[in-house]
Amino acid sequence: MDEYRTLQGVSQGLYKEKGSKFIAIAIPVDSSDNIRIQLEQLRKRYHDARHHCYAYRLGEEPGETRFNDDGEPSGTAGKPIFGQIQSFELTNVLIVVIRYFGGVKLGTGGLIQAYRAAAKDAISNGKIITKTWTSSLEIRFDYLLMNDVMRIIKDESLRIITQESSEQTRILLEIRKGNLEIVIRKFSSLGKLEWAVI
Length: 198
Known about the structure:
By secondary structure, the protein is an alpha+beta fold. The protein is built from five helices and eleven strands, in the order βββαββαβαββαββαβ.
């Protein structure tokens, strides 16, 4: 399977309990750097909140995963948030739940329920979409092969990322992972063509 489920855009959720307010923000992400930047921005924006708990999954199964309780009792925040990412079978998503403390302690069960409900609300308010995992394939060839190469690109509906021509033509393509072997076989059948998966 080269398909995955993620969110189309940023969505928010809210849960209130005994004066505490839990603001959940679900964000589609595609890299660890992207996650770091999003977390920094949210900490600045909600600088007066007591906790910024989060969970994310990045990449193909099992993927890169992490959850953080940010000062809440262990296992009461990050894990329930991550549980919602798993329940909805999402990846390439970050969910941050920001808590404003209302003065009344909720207890372990209350916290788990609050973080779970806020995360679920954020996902439910967003639009879940299906995307495909892709690979980048670089091909190098003599200009004489250009027509044959372009025919394969058109037949396979490949997306050209970059194209350079000098003595040799170099094209960087985006290819659906499930089609990669077929496409490489077709290019290899042309003869004098070099390729590399990047």
